[in-house]
Amino acid sequence: MFKLVILIEEMEDSQTFDDAWPKFLHLAESMPGLQRETFSRVEVVLFGSNRPGLVHELYFDSLEAARTAMASPSGKEAGRLLQQITGGRMTLFLADHKENSLENTRKHAAEKS
User: Fold this and answer.
1) What are the pLDDT digits (tens) for 26-59?
2) In angstroms, what CA-CA distances link 100 with 4, 90, 108?
3) In the CATH hierarchy, which fold is given to the domain comprising 2-112?
C-alpha cells in the first residue's frame, strides 16, 4: 500500500484555510483508487525544524494508483486548491506504507527473549 502524505505548515490565516478545507476534502475523496484517508491536527512538535499544523494521508493500493489519482481531474484540482489555501507552505511525499499489529510485534519480541 502507498500513501500520499501532506504535511501542512501552521497557518497564520487559519480562517481562510478552514473555510476551504471541506472543498479540498471533497476533491481529494473523489480521486480514483482512494482506499483510506486520515488526517491529524498536530498539537505538539517535539523535535525538528518543520512545524506542521496538519498531517493528511491518502492511501492507495500501489504507487501507480497514487500517481493516477494525483493526475486525475479531481487530483489536479485538489492540488491546485491546496497550493492556493496553504500558499505553498506544505510538503508532499509518497511513502510505501507498511503496517504491523502491536500483537504481532509483541509476539516476535517475546520469541527473541
Assistant:
1) 999 999 999 999 999 999 999 988 889 999 999 9
2) 19, 28, 11
3) Alpha-Beta Plaits (3.30.70)
